[in-house]
Amino acid sequence: MSSTEPRRTALDATHRALGATMTDFAGWDMPLRYGSERDEHLAVRSRAGLFDLSHMGESTVTGPQATELLNFALVGNIGTVKPGRARYTMICREDGGILDDLIVYRLDETGAGTPHYMVVANASNAQVVLDALTERAAGFDAEVRDDRDAYALLAVQGPESPAILASLTDAGLDGLKYYAGLPGTVAGVPALIARTGYTGEDGFELFVKPEHAVELWQALTVAGEDAGLVPCGLSCRDTLRLEAGMPLYGHELSTALTPFDAGFGRVVKFEKEGDFVGRAALAEAAERAAATPPRVLVGLVAEGRRVPRAGYQVVAGGEVVGEVTSGAPSPTLGKPIAMAYVDPAHAAPGTAGVGVDIRGSHEPYEVVALPFYKRQK
Q1: Phi/psi of residue 74, nearest 5 degrees
Q2: Looking at the whole model, is its pTM more than 0.85?
Q3: What was the pLDDT predicted at 234?
Q4: Beta-carbon neighbour count of residue 33 at 10 Å?
Q5: Which candidate, 19, 28, 132, 27, places its Cα nearest to that of 70?
Q6: Rounded Cα gap, residues 159 and 236, in angstroms
């Protein structure tokens, strides 16, 4: 295989047998949709969907100083993550620009012995994050290992997902909190069972060995049949996360923005001990944001039918006041929606006179607070 050909997950043949429309994503050949992306989206909102996310980038960090390394390399306080829990955080450059947003799982089961973490990066940044962690490990008694090929990742998302998974495992799902993970078996397959996801619904992400991926996919498909589970592609994953107001790297997050510019200053923990990469620049960014509030990430709901896309200008009173970062038709709301960074003066929900410049036409939009959709718990 030439280096220009996309990588294929362990489920590639399964996707093709299901008639998936495939697309190149971050160097991987991934299912975009199997049938109707709207139907897949609504299935996750009302029943359950099954995703192949094996393109995500896993790195394992172990060793006596694994915690200290991650506290230095990332902006969050990893020392407060208890075994079996996960933490949303970011990795930044020295200048404070966001390299990626991450989920860090602490995996050591007893809390005793050597710390053991799994860092999950976005597919498009997997190598960047691995390289940064490896470089930042210098001087720490810790090892960073590329485990992208060690895992397949399947996600079951939606209100029926707990019942579907419970039928296949004896792991105690009732006690598994959001942003927690525990080792167990699912349909006889050893897995890390994590209560995480990117859809705004309850759900689980299952990290397994690639050789077990097909077996597990088939078992989940059978177990979810009566509950209306359907296979889902990356297209509906994007509209689901957009409705849930979740940022996507390359859209809402980039190296041009610090976490404070992006409205995610809360993930930066200055109170933790010791230095961390970007600390000085981020302290300055926090001061700037306090003195001169940056553009605010808001939701926009169309009054018409035209769909805004990333890069379109947000306008008010003949002036450009912001920029769309993500936009799509919302299957749940039945209208086009967008996330956009807009000037603070136009960021309050209900602000009048805001539009999006769509090919020269200023289409009216309502400013709303994020998220667009919040599940009933």
Answers
A1: -115, 165
A2: yes
A3: 98
A4: 21
A5: 132
A6: 16
pLDDT for the residue 4: 77
Structure tokens that stand for 241 in this block:
């996360």
Helix or strand or coil: residue 41?
helix
Q: What is residue 376's predicted lDDT score, i.e. its pLDDT?
A: 84
Closest CA to 229 of 137, 299, 167, 148: 167
Residue 85: DSSP 8-state: B
* Tokens read off for 275: 């230095």
- 261 three-state secondary structure: coil
The secondary element (H helix, E strand) that includes residue 43 is: helix 37-46
**Could you give the 3-state DSSP secondary structure of residue 202?**
coil
Identify the pLDDT of residue 1: 45
Residue 308 contacts residue 300 (beta carbons within 8 Å): yes
Query: Residue 226 class from Cβ within 10 Å (0-12 exposed, 13-18 middle, 19+ buried)?
Result: exposed
* E strand segments, the chain: 7-8, 21-25, 28-33, 49-52, 57-62, 86-92, 98-106, 116-121, 143-146, 152-157, 181-186, 189-194, 203-208, 230-231, 296-302, 313-316, 319-330, 335-342, 354-358, 361-368
| DSSP type of residue 321 | E
Cis, peptide link before residue 371, omega less than 30° from 0:
yes
- Look at residue 37 in the predicted model and tell me its pLDDT: 97
Say if residues 56 and 129 touch (Cβ distance below 8 Å): no
What is the dihedral sign for C-alpha 207, 212, 216, 217?
Answer: positive
Task: Report the interhelical angle of 126-136 vs 66-73 (nearest 10°).
Answer: 120
**Residue ranges in the chain modelled with pLDDT below 50:** 1-2
DSSP 97-118: -EEEEEEEEE--SSS-SS-EEE
| Residues contacting 113, CB < 8 A, separation 6+ | none
Three-state DSSP class for 220? helix
Alpha-carbon gap, residue 26 to 275, rounded angstroms: 32
